[in-house]
Write a structure and sequence with these properties.
heterodimer; A: about 450 residues; 18 helices; about 70% helix; globular; B: about 90 residues; mainly alpha; 2 domains; 3 helices; about 90% helix
Chain lengths: ~450, ~90
Amino acid sequence: MTLTLLPRNRGKLGVVIGEIALAISVALWLIYWYPFRVPMVSTASASSFHSDELSYLVSVTAAFVGALVLPLSKRVEGSSWQFPFAIILGVAGTSALASTTNPLVILASWGLVSLASYSMVSLSGDKDSLIGSIKYAFMSALSFQFLLIGVYMVVFSPAGSRIIALGVLLFLVALGFKAGIPPFHMWLPDVYGFSDPIPISMLSSTMKLGALALAIRILAQVMPSIEPRFGLSLVTVLVILSSAAMVLGNLGALTQTDVQRMMAYSSIAHVGYMTMALSAFAASVVYKAPQAGYFALLGLLVYFASYALSKASVFSFISGVRGQGRASMFKFQGLGTANKASSASVSVILLNLIGMPPLLGFWGKFFIFLSTASPSIPPFYVAGIPWFTLLGVANSALSVFYYAKVIRTMYTSGPSGMSSKVIAIPLISSVLLAAFGLAMPFLISLP
Amino acid sequence: MPALHSFLYDRWFINSAYYRVIVGGFAAASRGLDAVEHGGFDKFYHSLLPSTFSLASVKLRRVQTGVISKYLTALFAGLLIMVVIYVAFLLIG
């Protein structure tokens, strides 16, 4: 409602105000974060908000990606002022979700992120975006009920009560919906795959980070207080969700000829890797393996930044290629010569999504796989073989087929309707992903 | 005597034995390995594996009907499966 009341012809002003707000937000978070310790998640706080590395990283990433996507708002049809406003709402909600354990703040910020998300999708006004927005809103409303009950159970049950674990289970349903974990992911390929890619560049990258950060905060708070057998059951559920997301996401993307839809399925696979870190983090508490927990958290934080930058870039690039129709693979032919800088940077980003060293995506996957390969966690091993880690590695290998197909298509000759104008987001993101990837060994301190 | 002559004339059959056992043996082993490589490994990696993954991918994508009632059914089925797994592992543990 608020969005529709805003004036439509103040496009540039909206972008400028939005950029200033997000720049101030990034600067403030970085000042608070300094001197950049990684990783840490706090569970006890005098106020409703936690100031730790988890909240800093998610907030900086969300605000930075928001600032990158914001200038594209002029390309979202008829939404010159509303789109920047929706981005700022979404970034604020994501920061709040990543920073709190207060039930009221969780519910309010979850609602804020959801509202910003489906209004963002609908702003383009085309038929596919509107259908996607309605589907998203409908499913979101339902999943919100699970969040409500789950959070209520977690917060208001006595410490150590078995009902807490059931509450976490219901929270996982809401998380599964928000992040796109099978079988709660069904809305995602339709919304990410057909709607206007510019809102999706924001939606797919940052809007799910808050929910995932909240998941790790809830696990950090709940896991030590519940009986180990309840904890182990939760770990089992997380492992199954993670495996399903990796396998179904990659299989779905494998035979796609529409690049936007391919990236939609690949988002599901990437959430699988992040859920893998959640499983390892939860299991590290049950089996008292702090080193595995450290790597899981470190991997997740690195993955957040890498994933958000990559997805925002890829979808914004797709919006430039697809025009009014679908993002069919043949439209990517010849881009390597028509728009050299953008194609090269998108290739770097796709390699980052594969997890190619020395890019940042490699470090995210490396730390996550390191956490699941911990010998201190017996369920991740069968007959001495780290099956969970191998499943992750095999899925990464499987993803090479479809990512490489896009890179190869860009560098095959063909007619390209794309202009040679460089798209800023992939360029900035690829430089950052390469720079942070190269600097990573100097940035972290191993336990 | 002719048998001895023939034996000595054929250089103790070393040459033919060499060809039959060593050369023939290696040739047969090579044909066998070739059959395993082309019929087994190549077929597995270049035909069976890609077609299995492609089939799985196509079948999986067919689940994506766009019908929201089916998505809701999947959501509730997922919740049910999660609860069943949770309780089952609770009982086993």
